[in-house]
Amino acid sequence: MEKRDVVIIGGGLAGLTTAKFLAEKGIDFVLLEEDKSFFKKPCGEGILPIEVEPNFFDLYGSKAGIEGEINEVVMMIGNGTLNLPITFFMMDKKKVEEEIARQIKKLGGEIRLGEKVESVDGNMVYPQNIKAKVLVGADGVRSIVRRSKRVRSPKIGIGIEGHVEELEEFEKEKAYIWFGRDIVPNGYAWAFPKKDHWNIGIGSSNVKNFRPYLERFKSRFSDIEDLRGAGIPFSLPVKTYGKDFVLVGDSASQIMTSVGAGNLTSMICGHAAAEAIFDHLEGKCSLSRYEYIWKKRLEKLFCESLMICKLAEILSRANTNLSRAMIKIMAKVFT
Ligand SMILES: Cc1cc2nc3c(=O)[nH]c(=O)nc-3n(C[C@H](O)[C@H](O)[C@H](O)COP(=O)(O)OP(=O)(O)OC[C@H]3O[C@@H](n4cnc5c(N)ncnc54)[C@H](O)[C@@H]3O)c2cc1C
User: Fold this and answer.
1) Residue 89 reports pLDDT greater than 60
2) What does the pLDDT look like over 165-208, one tens digit per residue?
């Protein structure tokens, strides 16, 4: 049996960011990722900046894989459009995850790819046979750590992402969102510009009635490639710590439910987890400190986001004119 101070399960942005800041503090850890390479999970690859410290570039510490800034979102509702001044970044997520992994290794941290954790018993992980003082569940929306620690599951929706090379009449410096009951109830479809293609997709918090809308979406983009789907948490965060474990990122539902955006919030929470684990291993505090730190930074945002999500659910059932009016008001209030 191998003994480690920290075992991180999952090498998405949550696990990698936790690992980076643990490595910076010289903590002994190993990160186990089931895939043999990074970014296997689908994503829109957008980073919605939020007014919280530390910001994305403080956490990332690099510009590698950052493709550009979008300053306008064209929202399409029924036959009309709304142009909203929303700023966000597009990234090549594979490059970003690989860059963080490079930083971790440079700092002396250990990452093992192709290592799926099949079960967790106490703080032993199998089949690796590693015992951790602190276990980090950064293993995404269907977290095995969350299940083994008997923490309730968040509500889980669905997102599908693929690529198209060209979208005629679409401008590469803008992002496009389709919204409304004809597109998909309780969700939206998107087209985000990438360096050499478009990232397009559709997501909803309502999994039950999703298929016909997905089929319609696919028939609209017949040349869509690399179609991939995954769950998206759609609740407020669950309990994120116990006496010897923390949950970070999608495993804890640390996501802006209104837009299904969890890239940056996962990183902010990963950073908070590393801070708290360091103090905990020094004997200064319990792991409840982690929940205290991320709540101070993000709880208000998560609550507001869920409120918008609920409003959007009502709007996607309402008529087009009402939807447009409400989205205009929401964009004024929240951007
Ligand atoms: C279609 C789609 C589009 C999205 N678009 C955006 C967007 O544009 N912007 C945004 O901010 N957010 C977006 N999101 C949400 C965002 O992708 C997630 O919130 C974010 O990736 C969460 O990061 P994470 O590290 O917590 O989880 P993940 O990225 O899911 O990483 C979890 C990792 O754990 C690994 N793992 C799981 N189980 C095990 C195991 N048993 N053993 C070992 N490894 C394991 C997985 O392989 C995975 O690499 C989107 C989500 C979806 C599904």
Assistant:
1) yes
2) 988 889 999 999 998 888 998 889 999 999 999 999 999 998 98
Nearest CA to ligand 1 atom 27: 140
Tell me the pLDDT band of 320, cut-offs 50, 70 and 90: low
Cβ(270) – ligand 1 distance below 6 Å: no
For residues 71-107, b (16+ Cβ closer than 10 Å) or e, as one string? eebbbbbbeeebebebebbbbbbebbbbbbbebbeee
- Give me 295's structure tokens: 């709540």
Among the atoms of ligand 1, which is closest to the Cα of residue 201?
1
Q: Which domains does the chain have, with CATH numbers?
A: 2-65+75-155+237-334 (3.50.50.60)
pLDDT of res. 333: 52
Name which residue sits closest to atom 12 of ligand 1, judged by CA: 261
Mean pLDDT of the chain: 92
Closest-lying ligand 1 atom to the alpha carbon of residue 161: 1
Number of helices (H) and strands (E) in the chain: give both, helices first: 8, 17
Strand, helix or coil for residue 321: helix
Other CB atoms within 10 A of residue 163 CB: 18
User: Which residue has its alpha carbon closest to ligand 1 atom 8?
Assistant: 44
Query: Is the shortest distance between the CB of 15 and ligand 1 below 6 Å?
Result: yes
pLDDT band for 314, please (50, 70, 90 cuts). Answer: confident
| Residue closest by Cα to atom 16 of ligand 1 | 262
- Contact, 290 vs 245, CB < 8 A? no
Q: How far apart are CA 148 and CA 146, in angstroms?
A: 6
Which of 296, 281, 244, 325 shows the shortest CA–CA distance to 77? Answer: 325
Number of CB atoms found within 10 A of residue 174's CB: 15
The enclosing H or E element of 313 equals helix 288-315
Q: How confident is the model at residue 321 (pLDDT cuts 50, 70, 90)?
A: low
Residue 163 host element (H or E): strand 156-164
